[in-house]
Amino acid sequence: MATIRDSVSALYTSIYDEFLLGAYADYPEGCSAAFKEENTTQKDFKVDDLSSLGMWEDQDELVGGNIEDPVVGYEKTYTIAKTTKQFQVSFEASDDDEYALLGKVSSAEQMGRGGRARQAYDQAQHLYLGFSVAGPDGQYTFSAAHPQNREVTGNQYSNLLSGAFSHDNLEAAEKSITDNAYDMKAIPIPITEDPVLLYPPALRGKVARVLSDRATEQPDTTMRNINQFTTRKGMFTYKPVEDVWLNAANGGSDTAWYIMLPGLGYFKFVWRQKPHFVSWIDYNIEAYNFKGRARYDVGNDNWRGGFASTGA
């Protein structure tokens, strides 16, 4: 069957789509490990958090009461934005070279990697800007002054850790998380998942040493301490995840580190339309057009899903 001009773009769309999505999937996990994916059919995805009803209370026989209303949390709106990239093939290129369109497979692959890179960048940026950009409660995402809820502002909690990444500071971070992981009714939040430890490449060696089978060596003694972070039973261990988009060269920091609890679902990556390919023919300029596009937003609606230190 002959290939006519009007069918060429449709013929190659499925090929490009396959290579775009294949290269997209090859991109390393990175900061996406810290976010819960959601899907929406709306332009604006609103989250209205509600508190628990607090701890149960004693009640005497034949006596009513103990009625309690939940506290409305801080509203968060995820506003869906669009990201795209496209390439063109002229009619003349297709006329003169029968492989002109097939030769654009590498462009489709690069487009897939570029789409995933943009999403990885947006996720990392949300984290490292958390030290300087306010969240739904009006405090920085990582702050030492988060109010318990909108009605009880005198009780404050912290998800801002301190110090450079080290064995001792990781141990101190765990205590800080335990001391501050309370819901809006001041009930402790059970941490039943293994946290994600996010870090930039500059901390690769330190993370490897701290989470290795042996703790930091003590050169003045023949004794070697066990590493509590790898020998635990019944306690969480860490999922270490490195992401180059967190580093200073990409706008982040070479010292900051993050302990994320994605299972709580408070840090979200909200999809409106996942990466896909579209194509069309522009007869005015005589070109085949191929575009990759996606629509999403990234953010958090509650600070309790993550703890972080600037590494200072």
Topology, element by element:
Elements lengths: L4 H21 L10 E4 L4 E4 L28 E4 L1 E10 H6 L8 H24 L17 E2 L8 E2 L9 H14 L15 E4 L4 H7 L28 E4 L14 E4 L6 E16 L4 E14 L5 E4 L3
Parallel strand pairs: 1-10, 7-8
Antiparallel strand pairs: 2-3, 4-11, 5-6, 7-9, 9-12, 10-11
Mean pLDDT: 82
Strand residues, percent: 15-25%
Which CATH class?
A: Alpha Beta
How many domain modules? 1
Number of strands: 12
Give, in spatial order, the strands making up the sheet with the most strands: 1-10-11-4
Work out the helix count. Answer: 5
Please name the CATH topology. phage-related protein like fold
Supply the helix-strand structural class: alpha+beta
Query: Assembly state here?
Result: single chain
The succession of helices and strands, N to C, reads HEEEEHHEEHEHEEEEE
Indicate the radius of gyration in whole angstroms. Answer: 25 Å
Low-confidence segments, ≥5 residues, pLDDT <50?
A: 1-5
Outline the biggest β-sheet. Answer: 4 strands, mixed
CATH architecture: Alpha-Beta Complex
> Shape from CA axes?
globular
Our measurement of the CA-to-CA distance between the termini, rounded to an integer number of angstroms, reads 67 Å
Helix content: 10-25%
